[in-house]
Amino acid sequence: MKLTRYLITQILIAIGIALAGLTLLFSFFELLAELGRVSAGSYSLIQATILIGLQLPTRIHEVMPIATLLGGLFAFARLAQTSEYTVMRSAAWSPLHSIRVLALIALLLGLVTALIGEFVLPVSERMAERIQTQGVRHTQTFRSGLWAKDGPTFLKVRQILPDATLRDVRLYSVNNQAQLISITEAARGHWDTQGAWRLEDGHTLRFTPQGPQVTPFVSQPWPSKVGPDLLAMLMVKPEHMSIQALYQYIHHLHANRQQASRYELALWKKLIYPLSPMVMLLISLPFAYYQSRSGKIGGKLMLGLGIGLAFHLIGKASGDLALIKDGTPAMAASLPLLAFGLAGLIALFRVERT
Q1: What is the pLDDT of residues 232-247, one digit of tens each?
Q2: Is 200 left (phi over 0), alpha (psi -120 to 50) or beta?
Q3: What single string gives the DSSP state of each residue in 38-51?
């Protein structure tokens, strides 16, 4: 029991140091990038600092696997260097004992990662998005407009203000034969207290058997399932959305017969990502079997950093290939974990046999 507590403490301390170091390092790089916008007058230094602070949950969520790997490598390499792990093995400490300890640590880290990704990260990213949009003349501008589908109606919005006000709105309505029957244009759109959009200063062009008919209006309601919350989802990257938001939006896309592969991939990554600490710790365990003569701790940490970057790049590449080749999102999301987990088990088996 004492050995278990000691090992958990050593690994968690090392992971905490690695997590803090990587988070601060990437946040510093982000701050340097934002200073260019500060000098351009987009927003103040205080706003840039707040923006970096709001993005801290994203940084922590992203670097958690690499920090776990580096922390595990450092802890096990130090134990090997001081021959502590050798003494533990002499005291009937088996690899199964180590795997159980790693499973407990991975459960804790996975729970923290899941909670950050589900509850903290989406909120902080949405707040950060508001600061960024306020820095660009208080609007969010898209090259061709933001598109969304609501049943037989296609919505196009040129600009979305931070308060969810729409600018330059167009509605394209089609019939069951996919024929265009009307186009509605409005200068502005607001979400009213009745749970519907209210379009202002616009007109509706209807295509009738008698010919096109134009009806101007000052204000008219537009009931729609595409509310401010759904539009806010479209402004946030799928990787930064919560599992609940992803599931709801995927259901909306399926209901409107739209492609949802990108969001399904993000959903599966969200579900599988909390398992990555266990895989990273499993990869680090074989390094406890190498004595100091097998290499310095610094070299092992560099190797671990390379493995962590490879894990990140392979995960991204497998997801991109799945989207291009219409692959299975679940397989694309789980493939890196399966491959690196198998590699860790093989490495552990080999060092245990030697």
Answers
A1: 777 678 888 899 989 9
A2: beta
A3: HHTTSS-HHHHHHH
